[in-house]
Amino acid sequence: MLVVGLTGSIAMGKTTAAAHLRSRGVPVFDADGCVHELYRAEAVPLIEAAFPGTTDNAGVDRALLSAALQRDPAGFKRLEAIVHPLVRQREVAFLRDAAEAGAAVAVLDVPLLYETGLDAALDAVIVVSASAEAQRERALMRPGMTAEKLDQLLARQMPDEEKRRRAHFVVDTNGPPGVSLHQLDAILGMLGGRRAQAYARYWSA
C-alpha cells in the first residue's frame, strides 16, 4: 500500500482535494478533523494544564486557545508537543485499517506535513498550491479570520515555494475547480507506478 501525503498552506484548496480523493475511493486521514476530536477527548486535560482557562465541559474552547496563542506565540510549541503524538497514534491506526482493507493507496491530509518531518515516512507528497494573492483573498473570507491572525498562521508554515519544490506532485488551484481535480486524477494514475515502501518501513511495526 502506498502512503501518500496531502498538504498545502492555508486556503490553497486542500479540503477540496481531499474530498475528491475520497470520492475516488481513496481512504484519507484528516489531521485537522482528528485534532477537533482530540479537543473533545484525551487532549482536554493536557491542554488545560498547559493553557489554564481554555477548556470547559465541552472540551477545548478554540477561541480561547487561539487568543492565548496570539498573546504567547511560543505556546505553539507546547501545544504541538501535546497534540502531535496523539495525532500520530491515530494515523498509525488509520493506516493499519486501510492496509487490512486492501487499499492500494492511503492518504494522510496534514497541514504541517513538511514542518513536522512527516514527509520522511511517506512514499510521495502531493502539494496543493495557489498564488499568494488568491490565498490571501480566500483566507480572509473565512469567518473569524483577520489579517493579523493570517500572518501569524503563515509564519508557522513553510513557504509555498519551498513546498512546491519538495513535492512529488503539485496541484495548481488557481483556476476552476474542475481543472485542479483533473490534475489530481492524473496524479492518482501516476501513483500506480510508484513502489510502496513507507508502510512496511515506518508504520506497520
Question: Keyphrases for this structure?
Answer:
7 strands; 2 domains; 205 residues; two-stranded antiparallel sheet; Rossmann fold
End-to-end gap = 15 Å
Proportion of helical residues: 40-55%
Q: What name does CATH use for the topology of the largest domain?
A: Rossmann fold
Average predicted local confidence, pLDDT? 94
Order of helices and strands: EHEHHEEHHEEHHHEHH
How do the strands of the widest beta sheet line up side by side? Answer: 2-5-1-6-7
Pick out the low-confidence regions: none
The total strand number stands at 7
Helix and strand composition category = alpha/beta
- CATH A-level architecture of the largest domain: 3-Layer(aba) Sandwich
What is the CATH C-level name of the largest domain?
Alpha Beta
Total count of domains? 2
CATH superfamily caption of the largest domain: P-loop containing nucleotide triphosphate hydrolases
CA gyration radius, whole angstroms: 17 Å
Biggest β-sheet strands, sense, barrel: 5 strands, parallel
Our count of helices gives: 10
What does this entry look like structurally?
Strands 2-5-1-6-7 form a 5-stranded parallel β-sheet, with helices on both faces. The chain has 205 residues and is of the alpha/beta class. The radius of gyration is 17 Å and the shape is globular. It has helices at residues 14-23, 31-38, 43-50, 62-71, 75-100, 132-140, 147-156, 160-166, 177-191, 198-203, and strands at 2-7, 28-30, 55-56, 59-60, 105-109, 124-129, 169-172. The two termini are 15 Å apart. It has 2 domains: 1-27 and 103-199, P-loop containing nucleotide triphosphate hydrolases (Rossmann fold, 3-Layer(aba) Sandwich), CATH 3.40.50.300; 34-102, no CATH class. The mean pLDDT is 94.
